[in-house]
Amino acid sequence: MSAEAKAENVGEGKWTKGPWVALFNERDNGIVEAIITDSDRDPDNGIADVYAADNDELIANTHLIAAAPDLYAVCKAALEHVIELEDAWQRGSLHDYDGQGGTRSNRNIDVRNALQTALAKALGK
Questions:
Q1: Residue 59's pLDDT band (boundaries 50, 70, 90)?
Q2: Would you tell me how many other CB atoms lie within 10 Å of the CB of residue 116?
Q3: What is the rounded CA–CA span in Å between residue 10 and residue 79?
Q4: What is the pLDDT of residues 28-42, one digit of tens each?
Q5: Rounded Cα gap, residues 110 and 24, in angstroms
Q6: Is 72 in contact with 12 (CB distance < 8 Å)?
Q7: How many domains does the chain have?
Q8: Which residues contact 60 (CB under 8 A, 6 or more apart)?
Q9: Phi, psi angles (nearest 5°) of residue 46
Q10: pLDDT, tens digit, 9 for 90 and up, residues 90-105
Q11: 32: CB partners within 8 A, 6+ apart
């Protein structure tokens, strides 16, 4: 069974497909309003309104929520990759993951980059 098939056991979510976007609006009184919407950036098609005790917390929470589909996708890809590594280890062929530019070692770099990108999005960067 392929790593992708093994990772499929995790399942797929029934949520609105990503990417999600964080939109902010500062009112006259300095309070920030936040909404999560899909990629068309239409606030009328909002996925979630976000509330918090202060603006900094609201902004951080909104970025984290907006990153949810990206984080899920990257976690799933990382799981597939870990399963591939485990399978290679069990076969005694970890040399396939030697970092010398083979397709599997390139996947290490792809997964690392995707994880870094998703985590940065969650932090609003």
A1: very high
A2: 11
A3: 9
A4: 888 889 999 988 788
A5: 31
A6: no
A7: 1
A8: 123, 124
A9: -65, 145
A10: 676 666 555 555 556 6
A11: 24, 25, 26, 55, 58, 59
Q: What is the mean pLDDT of the chain?
A: 80
| Closest to 21 in 3D by CA, of 77, 51, 65 | 65
pTM: 0.71
Cβ-contact 81, 5 below 8 angstroms: no
- Domain of residue 21 covers 3-122
Number of H helices, E strands in the chain: 4, 3
> What's the whole-number mean pLDDT along residues 14-43?
87
> H helices of 10-102, where?
55-66, 68-91
